[in-house]
């Protein structure tokens, strides 16, 4: 599967209770881009992310990874290409040990035990968590859980990382470690976040969502200079801008 773009074509999504979450979302993200999706609560950010690896299916419209629409038939390949990191790491950590959690997805790829072990060790080392392999996930701090959740995705060797609020609930030191970690990845990154200073650190492009549509698409400097846009979309300038 080609992995050189993520594309949404007029994506509409309506929940079973009739709530309209996405109302015609379209964009193209090219390989290697680092893109933030920002907006107030209820803007549709998390719903959109769940479409990018097939957790949700559009009511109408289409999501494409490379040259292929996301369908039931290619869902396994899509999920190898697009690694999803959820807002709450506890949604991803459920095995008895950290090692088992990071190895979980690899067990379905038919790899030999030796190869799985090497992948797990490399992924844990990448996030600075090599010493945590035998620990039960419930004994980890919030920052450690976040790192291990990222390791579990990295072990699958995805080309695209999709992250929902990667800095949520972290203390300042753990937040900085996660930012530094993500800054070192060459993957395509799609990050939904309320942490606008993180956007400045990691992203070269920003999509602003409001009431289920893309209100603006530009560089961080362009977006954060538009005070009318920020106010309309229930956003404020990053704290680092406010101190200037």
Poorly predicted regions:
none
**Helix proportion range:** 25-40%
Give the averaged pLDDT, no decimals.
91
Query: How many structural domains does the protein architecture include?
Result: 1
Strand order of the largest sheet: 6-7-8-3-9-10
- Count of individual helical segments: 10
The backbone outline, from C-alpha atoms, is globular
Structural class: alpha/beta
- Spatial separation of the terminal alpha carbons: 46 Å
Query: Per CATH, what is the topology?
Result: Rossmann fold
How many strand elements?
10
CATH first level: Alpha Beta
Instruction: Give me the Rg, rounded.
Output: 18 Å
Proportion in β-strands: 15-25%
Summarize the main sheet: 6 strands, mixed
Which CATH-level-2 architecture? 3-Layer(aba) Sandwich
Order of helices and strands: EEEHEEHEHHHEHEHEEHHH
Looking at CATH, the homologous superfamily is: P-loop containing nucleotide triphosphate hydrolases
Can you characterise this structure?
By secondary structure, the protein is an alpha/beta fold. The chain has one domain (5-242): P-loop containing nucleotide triphosphate hydrolases (Rossmann fold, 3-Layer(aba) Sandwich), CATH 3.40.50. The protein contains ten helices and ten strands. The chain has helices at residues 45-51, 75-81, 98-103, 113-126, 142-154, 172-183, 196-202, 220-224, 227-232, 239-242, and strands at residues 5-14, 20-30, 34-38, 60-65, 68-69, 82-85, 160-164, 188-192, 205-210, 213-218. The strands form two sheets. It has a six-stranded mixed sheet with strand order 6-7-8-3-9-10, with helices on both faces. A four-stranded antiparallel sheet has the order 2-1-4-5, covered by helices on one side. Strand 1 (5-14) and strand 2 (20-30) form a beta hairpin. Helix 4 (113-126) packs across helix 5 (142-154) and helix 5 (142-154) packs parallel to helix 6 (172-183). It is globular and about 55 Å long.
């Amino acid at each position: 599967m080609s992995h050189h773009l993520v594309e949404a074509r007029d994506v509409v999504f309506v929940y079973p209770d009739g709530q309209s979450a996405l109302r015609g979302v379209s964009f193209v993200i090219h390989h290697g881009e680092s893109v933030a999706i920002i907006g107030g609560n209820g803007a549709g950010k998390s719903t959109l992310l769940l479409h990018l690896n097939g957790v949700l299916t559009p009511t109408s419209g289409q999501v494409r990874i490379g040259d292929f629409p996301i369908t039931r038939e290619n869902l396994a390949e899509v999920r190898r290409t697009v690694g999803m990191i959820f807002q709450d790491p506890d949604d991803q950590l459920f095995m008895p040990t950290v090692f088992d959690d990071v190895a979980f997805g690899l067990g379905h790829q038919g790899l030999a035990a030796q190869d799985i072990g090497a992948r797990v060790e490399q992924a844990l080392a990448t996030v600075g968590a090599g010493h945590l392999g035998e620990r039960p996930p419930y004994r980890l701090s919030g920052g450690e859980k976040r790192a291990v959740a990222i390791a579990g995705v990295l072990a699958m060797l995805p080309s695209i990382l999709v992250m929902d609020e990667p800095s949520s609930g972290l203390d300042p030191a753990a937040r900085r470690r996660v930012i530094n970690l993500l800054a070192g990845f060459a993957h395509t990154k799609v990050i939904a976040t309320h942490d606008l200073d993180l956007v400045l650190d990691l992203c070269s492009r920003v999509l602003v969502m409001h009431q289920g549509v893309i209100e603006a698409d530009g560089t961080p400097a362009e977006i954060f200079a538009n005070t009318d846009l920020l106010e309309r979309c229930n956003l404020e300038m990053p704290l680092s801008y406010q101190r200037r």
